[in-house]
Design a protein that fits this description.
The chain is α/β, with parallel strands linked by helices. It has three domains: 1-89 and 258-370, Isopropylmalate Dehydrogenase (3-Layer(aba) Sandwich), CATH 3.40.718.10; 92-252, Isopropylmalate Dehydrogenase, CATH 3.40.718; 376-475, Alpha-Beta Plaits. Helices cover 32% and strands 21% of the residues. It has 14 helices and 18 strands. It has helices at 12-25, 39-43, 52-61, 80-87, 106-109, 147-163, 181-193, 206-215, 227-240, 278-290, 294-309, 327-336, 391-400, 446-456; strands at residues 2-6, 31-34, 63-66, 92-98, 115-121, 131-133, 139-141, 169-173, 201-205, 222-225, 248-252, 257-261, 376-386, 406-413, 416-419, 431-438, 461-471, 474-475. Helix 6 packs across helix 7, helix 10 packs antiparallel against helix 11 (294-309) and helix 11 crosses helix 12. It is elongated. 41% of the residues are buried. The structure holds 1,4-dihydronicotinamide adenine dinucleotide. 1,4-dihydronicotinamide adenine dinucleotide binds at residues 11, 68-71, 81, 244-245, 260, 263-269, 275-276, 279, 316.
């Protein structure tokens, strides 16, 4: 079987070489096709950080094993890591955080065993990177949370939790504030939970989750979160088990999967052959299990655990009284420990499974539609307008343009209502949201909205607008704070 390998930037080539030397020593029947991705590919003028040949190879093999990659700063280019995850729809980012004997932490010293799997949604949220300056003072980021996208990742998390015999599956969210976006994610979580009655499913607000993770990490098992919250929470979990050097990650899609460490290119230690290859090795082990090489994965993992337990360490962790080994030395130690088993929790050697290939050639882009349409009508619009006038003045000007079809309902600034009621203590920025609704709750046409846009633009720069939709008797939009 062939897989695509990208060595990455910074410490990437060093840790990749170390991991592949372990695979080779274990006679793993894999062929590697190296692909060009990363900073130097950006520098050669490929704006997405990968060559067309790299894209073709990855799509042909369906598996990418990659080292960390640097995004050039200040060149306006997007991260190749994020591009890869999004382009190939690897919608679930699975990150496993386990107590490793030999890696001392405050928890391991207290005898608290951690085994947490974070499943992070990997495509949507603010990672869409759709951002605009609306005025010179006001930046806007669009945050997409979709029903099909949420269902994909949540269903994956439940399936994985079932296979793992998880004690608990928890949805982390901020639906108390982001009622529509995180509210949708949470709704999808409980929708999927109905199909898994054997699993204990619950939810927790993300700030409370962070506090409980650092006080009682052993009470959590599988946690599923939206993209940005998942990113932050998973780095927190990495800290619980000893740091980024021990945090592996698998980006799972229906056709293409990407295996990589959570950490970055570590420019401060690059080129010195001192980086810790454990996180990339653990990511590689997840890849071996994914493609059915269970026996190799178990032998290597047991050797790794034995190595850690016996005190061998790189400079970033471990007993300071024992001199550290370098990256190559660490790989050699793992190889020399093939066949040995750690005293604490050896991984069982499962028989080779026949792999069902998940990868096939697609003819066209899959369109994901999961919700049935309900009766839908436009009943108003939020007009985002630039102005440095006071709310009353803005309201008077807006009302002049409301015409026969609209009434001005409210004006808010940074999401806080400032008209018809508000407080002079609310600080303002030079962008308001003027909310117009149809005069008698009538259904509006898109042309009505455009007519209002044109007339308002005589007084204001209209930066953007959003339709106010009703689905049946449900408002498909949020209220302003104080409205
Ligand atoms: P980083 O993870 O590269 O480094 C943070 C700290 O952890 C540094 O002190 C580093 O020396 C240490 N560290 C990381 N991995 C280590 C290892 N294997 N062994 C020993 N020490 C290790 O994060 P930073 O500095 O924020 O990012 C550097 C670059 O990496 C940036 O260009 C960033 O965009 C990129 N990056 C790439 C990722 C990827 O390819 N998936 C993920 C995160 C960052």
């Amino acid at each position: 079987m062939k897989i695509a390998v990208a060595k990455g930037d910074g410490i990437g080539p060093e840790i990749m070489e170390a991991v592949l030397s372990i695979f080779t020593a274990n006679k793993i029947s894999l062929e590697y096709e190296y692909v060009d991705m990363g900073k130097w590919v950006f520098d050669k003028g490929f704006s997405n950080g990968m060559t067309p040949e790299a894209k073709q190879t990855i799509e042909a093999h369906g598996i990418l094993f990659k080292g960390p990659m640097e995004t050039p700063k200040g060149k306006g280019v997007k991260s190749v890591n994020v591009t890869a995850r999004k382009t190939w729809n690897t919608y679930a980012n699975k990150r496993v955080f386990q107590t490793l004997h030999g890696v001392n932490t405050v928890f391991s010293k207290a005898g608290i065993i951690i085994d947490i799997t974070v499943v992070r949604e990997n495509i949507e949220d603010t990672y869409g990177g759709i951002e605009h300056m609306l005025t010179h003072d006001v930046a806007l980021s669009r945050r997409f949370i979709t029903r099909p996208g949420s269902l994909q990742v949540i269903r994956y998390a439940f399936e994985m939790a079932k296979k793992k015999n998880a004690r608990r599956i928890t949805c982390g969210h901020k639906a108390n504030i982001m009622k529509i976006t995180d509210g949708l994610f949470l709704e999808c979580f409980y929708e999927v939970a109905k199909d898994y009655p054997e699993l204990k499913a619950d939810d927790i607000i993300v700030d409370d989750l962070c506090m409980k993770l650092v006080t009682r990490p052993d009470t959590f098992d599988v946690i599923v979160l939206t993209n940005l919250q998942g990113d932050i929470v998973s780095d927190l979990c990495a800290g619980l088990v000893g740091g980024l050097g021990f945090a592996p990650s698998a980006n799972i899609g229906d056709h293409i999967c990407i295996f990589e460490a959570v950490h970055g290119t570590a420019p401060d230690i690059a080129g010195k052959n001192i980086a810790n290859p454990t996180a990339l090795l653990l990511s590689g082990l997840a890849m071996l299990r994914h493609i059915g090489l269970m026996e190799n994965a178990a032998i290597i993992e047991n050797a790794l655990l034995f190595t850690l337990e016996s005190g061998v360490h790189t400079g970033d962790f471990g007993d300071k009284s024992i001199p550290p080994v370098n990256t190559t030395g660490f790989a050699e130690a793992v190889i020399s420990n093939f066949g040995k088993q750690p005293s604490a929790g050896a991984k069982p050697i499962l028989p080779n499974m026949t792999r069902t290939p998940t990868h096939f050639k697609l003819e066209k882009n899959p369109m994901l539609v999961s919700a049935e349409m309900s009766e839908e009508k436009i009943i108003g619009v939020d007009m985002f307008i630039e102005s440095d006038e006071q709310p009353l003045q803005v309201a008077e000007e807006c009302e002049q343009h409301a015409g026969q079809k609209f009434k001005l309902i409210s004006i808010s600034n940074r999401g806080t209502q400032v008209w018809p009621t508000g407080s002079v203590y609310t600080n303002l920025v030079n962008q308001y949201n003027a909310r117009f609704e149809s005069l008698h709750g009538d259904t509006l046409a898109q042309q009505d909205i455009i007519d209002l846009y044109i007339t308002l633009s005589r007084n204001f720069k209209v930066c953007s607008f959003e339709l106010l939709n009703m689905w049946g008797d449900k408002k498909a939009y949020s209220l302003a704070q104080g409205q």
